[in-house]
Design brief:
Length: 451
């Protein structure tokens, strides 16, 4: 089945400032398209580094976007975190503030050998949440309101392994289980009470596996090292079922609508959603610290491209690009993102100054990214940018027995970004986001000589 998506005349009146975030974690009308708004494939540490993950190596932090990095994990590591976001949404004629947030992700990694590591975790792949109104006039039915509502999203659980294949080369692979549901409802309400309101409810359920892989090449350059990284996710047809039902009803101000006649119903039609191919290439320079699994400083850059023209919200039958029949993709262009990042621990970056204060031992981070999302509305490309600053605060370490290691890092950061534009009756979103996470490191599976 082919589903057709028309560009909305986004002369929107937003209804319910807190409508969908409790269920979905998103309050963006742009989550109407595709699978919703795709979320960062990162925990707090890398999220504050703008997603420059293809070339990132660390012995302390889980990097699910680059499975080759698991080979460098030195301690059993638990990463978890969340976000809280305030969003200003505006057209040329109206605006409002929305908020959303909560716990977002959790992951674990641990070394199997000095040259091999394993990771597992769970996080949202995409989020959908919107509630908006358009108005119009029809020659036969008179004035009407059309309401669009959506909630849900897809989650991603991964398990992956990374290993050092050669002295300076590491490779890795993730198996990702994608699951979740997406509910979308359209209500057509006529001002003239002689016409009953019409509702269309659509629900997509998805669950299946996909994979991604990566490689990193480390290049020692005296006291500095460079890492060249590449990650690749193959496009995946995720098994799904689709249901929709349309019916007339009598609308009530109390919210207790009265259903009348069912016009059409489709139940559990088998098909797929299609997650597009994605590739990222990154380069990072850093200064390693002897006998420590962290760098004194690092700077990184990454270029990522996503084949958004492949994206399918739901499809049954042969994939459209494998047939000769014409079709219109949801996204008119492929997405491209450029990210830059820098981080520093003052006490390690400037050892000659003998900095010993607590703040000198914290890790400071900053990043910026710019993206062409691939979405084109009203002949207008939708673009986004995001700036981040953050700090990693050490929570102390302690040794219970000789050789035992236990320590943690609290990640706190602020992000400022924009999505979309007010041009051509579209919506511009300007948002601030607090990012908080914690990383726990422990020395597991170690045989102690003395107890």
């Amino acid at each position: 089945m082919k589903r057709t998506y028309k560009i909305l005349p986004l002369l929107l009146l937003f209804a319910g400032a807190h409508m969908a975030h409790a269920q979905s974690g998103s309050v963006s009308p742009y989550s109407l398209y595709g699978h919703g708004l795709v979320q960062p494939n990162a925990f707090a540490f890398h999220q504050l580094l703008g997603g420059t993950q293809a070339a990132a190596q660390s012995g302390l932090y889980v990097n699910p976007a680059q499975p080759a990095s698991y080979a460098h994990i030195r301690y059993t590591t638990l990463d978890l975190g969340g976000t809280y976001q305030g969003i200003h949404q505006a057209t040329e004629s109206a605006s409002l503030w929305n908020t959303t947030g909560g716990f977002r992700n959790m992951g674990i990694a641990f070394p199997l050998k000095k040259w091999m590591g394993l990771s597992a975790g769970i996080m949202p792949y995409s989020l959908t949440g919107y509630n908006m109104l358009t108005s119009g006039t029809d020659a036969d039915f008179g004035d009407y309101l059309q309401q669009y509502q959506g909630k849900g999203g897809y989650n991603k659980a991964h398990v992956g392994i990374g290993l050092t294949a050669l002295k300076y080369l590491s490779v890795g692979i993730n198996a990702n289980y994608v699951f979740g549901s997406l509910d979308q409802t359209t209500n057509l309400i006529f001002t003239d009470n002689q016409f009953n309101a019409v509702r269309l409810h659509q629900r997509t359920l998805a669950s299946d596996w996909m994979w991604d892989a990566g490689a990193q090449l480390r290049l020692p350059m005296g006291s500095v090292q460079a890492v060249l990284g590449v990650s690749f996710r193959d496009g995946a047809a995720i098994r799904s079922t689709y249901s929709d039902v349309s019916y007339t009803y009598i609308a009530s101000l109390s919210g207790q609508d009265t259903p009348l006649d069912t016009g059409n119903a489709v139940v559990d039609r088998a098909g797929v959603i299609y997650l597009p191919t994605q590739m990222a290439v990154g380069l990072e320079f850093s200064k390693p610290v002897k006998d420590l699994p962290i760098a004194a400083w690092s700077v990184g850059a990454q270029y990522q491209v996503t084949e958004q023209t492949e994206l399918l919200p739901f499809w049954s039958g042969t994939l459209p690009w494998l047939t000769s029949e014409p079709w219109t993709p949801v996204y008119a262009e492929n997405a491209q993102r450029i990210s830059l990042s820098a981080s520093m621990i003052p006490s390690l970056a400037m050892p000659g100054k003998r900095l010993k204060s607590y703040l000198a031992e914290a890790a400071y981070r900053a990043s910026f990214q710019f993206e062409n999302t691939g979405l084109v509305l009203q002949n207008t490309p939708i673009r986004a940018w995001l700036g981040s600053v953050g700090v990693g605060l050490p929570l102390g370490g302690r040794a219970i027995m000789p050789g035992d290691v236990k320590f943690a890092t609290l990640h706190i950061g602020a992000q400022l970004g924009a999505y979309g534009t007010k041009q051509n009756n579209l919506i511009q979103e300007f948002y601030t986001q607090a990012v908080i996470g914690v990383t726990l490191n422990d020395q597991w599976f170690m045989k102690f000589k003395y107890r």
